[in-house]
Design brief:
The complex is a heterodimer of chains A (284) and B (318).
Chain A: H1 2-18, H2 36-43, E1 49-51, E2 56-58, E3 69-74, E4 81-88, E5 95-100, E6 107-112, E7 118-126, E8 131-138, H3 157-160, E9 164-168, E10 177-183, E11 200-208, E12 215-221, E13 230-235, E14 243-250, E15 255-261
Parallel strand pairs in A: 1-8
Antiparallel strand pairs in A: 2-3, 3-6, 4-5, 4-7, 5-12, 6-13, 7-8, 9-10, 10-13, 11-12, 11-14, 14-15
Chain B: H1 5-28, E1 38-41, E2 44-47, E3 65-70, E4 73-77, H2 83-96, E5 101-105, H3 111-114, E6 125-127, H4 129-150, E7 164-165, E8 169-173, E9 176-183, E10 190-195, E11 200-209, H5 220-231, E12 237-243, H6 250-271, H7 276-279, H8 294-313
Parallel strand pairs in B: 4-5, 5-6, 6-7, 11-12
Antiparallel strand pairs in B: 1-2, 2-3, 3-4, 8-9, 9-10, 10-11
The chains are: A mainly beta (284), B alpha/beta (318).
């Protein structure tokens, strides 16, 4: 009973914060980004927003390569998450990706371009509609978004677009299997004069099973994701899965398709840096 | 105009305040590296820098540049991170000897080795062909990044290319026989200079001492071979570009230990499914705590080394 009341109190507080009439009392951005108010209205319009360190965002304090800054967003501590986003506030395109984890763990990692020193955020929407936002500041030299892709320097780059490298690790004690993908693609922002935007827009991981091919997770990927995008996801494999199918499309209609084999017998689950008490299971 | 005593008093008070303010401005003073040479061997001097990263406080003075006074003129090794550093270095050398600068050697393309070369534009500046090519290709970007990192210390600094390609050889200046040793690993072109007459080795970026090694242009497997090459040399003093000067090769082992751990750890992490972002947070063994700027430099190395290791580890599936 005490637990329920505390939960209700918390929900009430969130609603007060989020109601449009109380916009002025919206929690102030711990990262003090000048873009926050605008980005909040643009990406979380009307939804309750809380800053919540339960969402763990990892990115380096200083970007060594502004075209490939590692970023991971881990919302497993929140339990069930419906949708996740990553945002780089001061990028010409702030929205990096939207992740629909389905019943995968609410964890996604990739590498992104950043145009200048900026707040980098991860947000997770729980089933009650609340966006839980967290983030870090990344210092950087300029230009990650407006630099031409390195692959254009190779004469045969177009022959390799859509090539996929991938590896699946067996599920560990927490029931999730680490999946890593690398896709050959310029992932061009279109900011270089005369070169149109050319980037992977959608990716979907399905399981191949005797009874059909359920979708395990979906990513809406955008301009700031690095050239030759790399993703790490933690998916839940149906027990009768024989393979995973990756399907995707870029903004010029190019198709991406690959079959990801199951891990070989005897393979070990991926290492996890998460504390042991931070496990997440369906229905929690 | 007739001045009342009161007015006169006010005027002097104002003047006094003005003088004091002027004094304060002077005390803050123009930026200076305050370079003081330390003699480490006969005729051989080093300007010892900090073991930190480039900051606005240190102006990029994180290196051990040096010079050797020979009967044939002064040999300068590395010119520092900025025009100001090069100029102060030259002035400090002038206080030690009136001999002219005979030649400048640059050990690799990283910013603190050569951005002070403007101050030596009237003499021959020697470097390996790979270093010259690297500065030609990346020099402007390197200089721009230094302006961002250390700011006003860089004022007036422009890319000055080395003028003379050198190769593996032994060259004699007065009584000093200098062995020029070209290697590959820390960068694509690393020049070590061994003064055979004093036994002092200017190791450039090949050896770091109590300072975390930097890897932006590194090939770790080759770098380990470079360290074997240093082990095979008969030396009395090792001058790393970054860190402490020692009469032994302890820091060769320290650099090897770090590189071996770093490379092995990243390979294991890739293999065990960890993501690059997660690898930024991996624990670093206690024994490396003696290395300055440890976590920061480790994270830079993850950025430099991880993508290639990862790419090689992932099978192609379509």
């Amino acid at each position: 009973m005490r637990y329920t009341r505390r939960n209700m109190g918390l929900t009430g507080a969130m609603l007060v914060i989020a109601g449009p009439a109380f916009a002025a009392s919206s929690p102030s951005d711990p990262l003090n980004s000048v873009m926050w108010d605008m980005l909040r209205d643009q990406y979380f319009a009307g939804a309750p927003v809380v800053f919540d360190s339960a969402v763990k965002v990892i990115a380096p304090a200083a970007a060594e390569d502004t075209r490939a800054v590692p970023l991971s967003v881990d919302a497993t501590a929140l339990g069930r998450v419906v949708e996740m986003v990553a945002i780089a506030d001061l990028n010409p395109f702030p929205l990096v990706l939207r992740y629909h984890p389905g019943n995968a763990a609410p964890y996604i990692a990739t590498r992104i371009k950043i145009q200048q020193a900026t707040a980098v955020r991860g947000a997770a929407r729980t089933a009650d509609g609340v966006w839980h936002v967290s983030g870090v500041l990344v210092d950087a030299a300029g230009g990650g978004c407006s630099a031409p892709p390195a692959s254009y320097a190779q004469k045969d780059w177009a022959d390799h677009v859509g090539e996929v490298q991938a590896r699946l690790w067996p599920a560990g004690e927490d029931g999730v299997a680490r999946l890593r993908l690398r896709i050959r693609h310029p992932n061009d922002t279109g900011l270089v004069d005369g070169i149109p935007a050319y980037f992977v827009e959608t990716l979907q991981v399905d399981a191949q099973t005797p009874g059909g091919s359920p979708t395990l997770a979906r990513i809406d990927s955008l301009e700031p994701v690095s050239e030759n995008p790399v993703y790490s996801l933690d998916v839940r494999l149906p027990p009768d899965a024989t393979a995973l199918i990756l399907r995707g499309r870029d903004n010029q209609g190019g198709e991406i398709r690959a079959t990801i084999p199951m891990p070989p017998p005897g393979a070990k689950p991926a290492m996890s840096l998460r504390p042991a008490d931070q496990r997440w299971s369906v229905g929690q | 105009m007739r001045r009342t005593p009161l007015r006169r008093l006010m005027l002097s008070a104002l003047l006094a305040a003005g003088v004091m303010a002027g004094g304060a401005v002077q005390a803050a003073g123009p930026l200076t590296y305050d370079l003081k040479p330390t003699q480490i061997a006969p005729d051989t001097y080093v300007f010892e820098g900090s073991t930190k990263h480039f900051t606005r406080a240190n102006g990029g003075n994180i290196l051990n540049s040096g010079f050797i006074v020979t009967a044939d003129g002064v040999i300068v090794i590395q010119t520092g991170p900025s025009r100001r550093y090069g100029e102060e270095m030259r002035a400090a050398i002038r206080k030690v000897t009136e001999k002219p600068i005979r030649k400048v050697f640059i050990s690799n393309l990283h910013p603190d080795y050569w951005l002070g070369s403007q101050a030596f534009a009237d003499v021959a500046i020697a470097a390996l062909p790979g270093t010259i090519a690297g500065i030609q290709e990346e020099g402007n970007g390197i200089a721009e990044n230094m302006y961002r990192l250390v700011g006003d210390w860089m004022r007036g600094t422009e890319v000055t290319l080395p003028t003379e390609p050198v190769y593996g050889s032994t060259v004699k200046f007065g009584d000093h026989r200098l062995r020029l040793i070209p290697l590959t690993g820390h960068t694509a072109a690393d020049l070590m200079i061994l003064d055979e007459s004093t036994g002092a080795l200017f190791a450039g970026g090949v050896v770091f001492c109590d300072r975390t090694p930097t890897t932006p242009h590194a090939t770790v497997a080759d770098w380990l071979k470079e360290l074997d090459a240093v082990d095979a040399l008969d030396i009395r003093l090792l001058v790393p570009n970054h860190g402490h000067i020692r009469p032994d090769k302890a820091c060769v082992a320290q650099t090897r230990d770090w590189l071996t751990w770093l490379d092995g750890t990243l390979r294991d992490a890739v293999e065990s499914g960890l993501d690059m972002a997660e690898a930024l947070e991996l624990p670093i063994p206690e024994r490396f705590q003696v290395l300055d700027v440890l976590r920061e430099e480790y994270r830079r190395s993850v950025a430099h080394l991880w993508p290639k290791i990862e790419q090689a580890s992932l099978p192609r599936i379509n």
